[in-house]
Specification:
114 residues; alpha+beta; three-stranded antiparallel beta sheet; 3 helices; 3 strands
Length: 114
């Protein structure tokens, strides 16, 4: 502990103020982006948008919805289209990132090569 107290040596304390991130807003219009990968045997579908931050009153309901829809082992998204049942995909997932600033919600699925 004594070495830890003296290790910083001549480092001076500053009064640096950390600026917060600028506000982000969800995309207002729908966009479709297609990337043609010649020779690829698989299709990846991804959709998403900016969601909420952790202070939102919708935080808990969205976490629960995301868990049911696309995060748990019994996720609804996969039970509808996964390979075991329909053979459309190996997996369908979703993710929610809600921290100090609004983060994304996204859902994705990869097709089964035929």
């Amino acid at each position: 502990m004594p070495k830890l107290r003296t290790a910083p040596g001549g480092v001076e304390k500053t009064h640096l103020k950390v600026a917060g991130a600028s506000a982000v807003t969800p995309a207002a219009e729908k966009r479709v982006i297609i990337v043609n990968r010649v020779g690829s045997v698989q299709t990846n579908l991804v959709m998403g948008n900016i969601a909420i931050d952790r202070r939102s009153p919708d935080y808990v309901p969205l976490v629960v919805m995301n868990q049911v829809f696309g995060r748990s082992a019994a996720r609804r998204a996969c039970s509808i289209i996964c390979a075991e049942d329909k053979g459309y995909t190996y997996g369908a997932y979703s993710g929610l990132s809600a921290g100090e600033y609004a983060g994304p919600w996204e859902a994705a699925a990869k097709s089964v090569p035929k």
